[in-house]
From TrEMBL:
GO cellular component annotations of the record: plasma membrane; side of membrane
Assembly and interaction partners: Monomer.
The protein's name in its UniProt record: Pantetheinase
The organism of origin for this protein: Rhinolophus ferrumequinum (Greater horseshoe bat)
TM spans (from-to): none
Keywords, alphabetical: Cell membrane, Glycoprotein, GPI-anchor, Hydrolase, Lipoprotein, Membrane, Signal
Location within or outside the cell: Cell membrane
Keyword Glycoprotein tagged: yes
Length: 551
């Protein structure tokens, strides 16, 4: 009871004797209660209740009614998590107001969220910063259940012509993560930096924000959905701010073979050496499912469900300060291998708009090398049996990806082709029958940012079944527990993202001009453009703008 009072004095006016008392009491608390070696994390995959699709703003009351419906469901998950001993719970991006918005129609859903430095417990002082019922409810849930809560809501900040960047409607609007500690205090606020294509209702902050918060169970950092593909703030949080755990609200649309949620998020945790708490929306019609609690060495809990309409609470224990692996040299192993000549059997096929160079795996076991530009990929493998009804291929890609975001990739991938036709290598496929007794995959990467993925049939992970060696080899520890969809080293060359001058606006226009055409439209055509259109599906949230005039 004493400590909160003294903390407040610290923030306002502090004398030397108060400081000493504060330090003394802090030390006392550290010795008796805090600083946990392990903690229990919870993530909630939330089946969000969506607003009506309309381009005109509803009243603030209607907006609040919808958000409170979602909060009723989140409250159930928060109480349940707290009862099971969770110290922190993460809820998804867009989990409180959904989507279907433009700039005007999101406005009644927004609240002014102050800088956490104001030292505010909204549950105790609900009117201190205007009308903020969402923040009050989240704060009270955190306080009453003694649990940290991470939520995603919208922030609004008025501006005027004294600021040349000020939008014409006189305000900034931000996609925002907030964190309330177990006393209900607002301790962190993060404005999403890398908005996904079509997220026009929000502004991006003028400077990338790097937001951390310290807890008795380690240092936390946060970012949102599409941010995970980029250097700032994601990599900076880990490398320069040494966070132990990332909290990650997301509204992620799965894209196979390399960007399904559980697959990529668990790979990022392993590649960066941090705990990662990913909370996704549950909305199967848009392929939104896939949440998890990932430690650097292995996933601890994950959920993928395209069948039901239900939300799902996951809990798991984690180390507060997970082991940070020694720096992997992602080229050492591969650059020591002598490549066999395989030129004439190579073929090209498209993986999510990128043209990979492939080689078919013809035997039940073998050693293969395939190269593209600066990247050579090496694979050794042994299948349990070589089936006559499935084709696997080894692929390499080194280039700039330019659809739905511009980012340079280097990828080595073993994958199952969708059909027996080689032109379907890289198409989305969810089931397989071929088991692998062993694999070892490496590449001559020009980056230290490589994310190791192993995805099994029916979108399952393989915890504890593989490892990465310090010389950059991804290898199986035992025969895999299920048939393989893909084994991939997904590398990012952040410094090459600016190499091309293709603007994202231009890309967005291109995509609008070539809308989604469903899978069954026509026979597969070797023309890449047609093939790209046929497979236009998306990861991360895509704004579904109702038909009608915009702005
Ligand atoms: C959506 O529309 C229904 C029927 O018109 C209405 O009852 C409901 O209040 C609306 N919801 C929101 C959030 O505006
Ligand atoms: C414009 O905004 C600045 C900064 O927010 C504020 O100090 C100033 O009073 C505003 N001016 C007007 C005319 O509203
Ligand atoms: C990684 O390994 C390669 C090949 O052995 C070596 O040339 C390179 O210097 C190593 N890189 C680092 C950063 O140690
Ligand atoms: C693959 O290479 C390893 C040594 O690098 C060798 O032991 C093995 O026999 C090779 N496998 C095949 C099928 O050639
Ligand atoms: C991109 O634009 C910059 C100037 O805006 C120019 O200096 C550079 O050469 C361009 N790069 C390419 C690859 O066209």
């Amino acid at each position: 009871m004493l400590l909160p009072y003294i903390k407040q004095s610290l923030d306002f006016s502090m004398t030397m004797s108060q400081l000493l008392t504060y330090v003394a009491i802090s030390v006392f608390c550290v010795l008796t209660a805090s600083s946990l070696d392990t903690f229990t994390a919870a993530v909630y995959e939330h089946a969000v209740i969506l607003p009506n699709a309309t381009l005109t703003a509803v009243s603030r009351q209607e907006a609040l009614a919808l958000m409170n419906q979602n909060l009723d469901l989140l409250e159930g998950a928060i109480i349940s998590a707290a009862k099971q001993g969770a110290h922190i719970i993460v809820t998804p991006e867009d989990g409180i107001y959904g989507w279907n918005f433009n700039r005007e129609s999101i406005y009644p859903y927004l609240e002014d969220i102050p800088n956490p430095q104001v030292n505010w417990i909204p549950c105790n002082h609900p009117n201190r910063f205007g009308h903020t019922p969402l923040q009050e409810r989240l704060s009270c849930l955190a306080k009453e259940n003694s649990i940290y809560i991470v939520a995603n809501i919208g922030d609004k900040k008025p501006c005027n012509s004294s600021d040349p960047q000020c939008p014409s409607d006189g305000r900034y609007q931000y996609n925002t993560d907030v964190v309330f500690d177990s006393q209900g205090k607002l301790v962190a606020r993060y404005h999403k930096q890398n908005l996904f294509m079509g997220e026009d209702q929000f502004n991006k902050p003028t400077e990338s924000e790097v937001v951390t918060f310290d807890t008795p169970f380690g240092r936390f950092g946060m970012f949102t959905c599409f941010d995970i593909l980029f250097h700032d703030p994601a990599v900076t949080l880990v490398e320069d701010f040494h966070v132990d755990t990332i909290v990650f609200p997301t509204a992620w649309m799965n894209v196979l073979p390399h960007l399904s949620a559980i697959e990529f998020h668990s790979a990022w945790a392993m590649g960066m050496g941090v705990n990662f708490l990913a909370s996704n929306i549950h909305y199967p019609p848009k392929k939104m499912t896939g949440s998890g609690i990932y430690a650097p060495d292995s996933p601890r809990a994950f959920h993928y469900d395209m069948k039901t309409q239900e939300g799902k609470l996951l809990l798991s224990q984690l180390d507060s300060h997970p082991y940070h692996p020694v720096l992997v040299n992602w080229t050492a192993y591969a650059s020591g291998i002598e490549a066999l000549s395989t030129g004439s059997q190579e073929f090209k096929s498209i993986v999510f708009f990128d043209e990979f160079t492939f080689l078919e795996l013809r035997g039940v076991a073998g050693n293969y090398t395939v190269c593209q530009n600066d990247l050579c990929c090496h694979l050794s493998y042994k299948m349990s049996e070589k089936r006559s009804d499935e084709v696997y291929a080894l692929g390499a890609f080194d280039g700039l990806h330019t659809v739905e975001g511009t980012y340079h990739l280097q990828i080595c991938t073993l994958l199952k082709c969708k059909t027996m036709g080689l032109h379907t290598c890289g198409d989305s496929v969810e089931t397989a029958s071929t088991r692998f007794d062993m694999f070892s995959l490496s590449g001559t990467f020009g980056t230290q940012y490589v994310f190791p993925e192993v995805l099994l049939s029916e979108i399952q992970l393989a915890p504890g079944e593989f490892q990465v060696s310090s010389d950059g080899c991804l290898f199986s520890l035992k025969p895999l527990s299920g048939p393989v969809l893909t084994v991939t080293l997904f590398g990012r060359l952040y410094e090459k993202d600016q190499a091309s001058n293709i603007s994202s606006d231009l890309m967005a226009q291109t995509l609008r001009a070539h809308p989604y055409i469903p899978d069954n439209v026509s026979q597969i055509n070797s023309d890449n453009i047609l093939k790209e259109r046929r497979r236009a599906h998306y990861f991360c949230k895509r704004l579904i703008v109702p038909t009608g005039r915009r702005q």
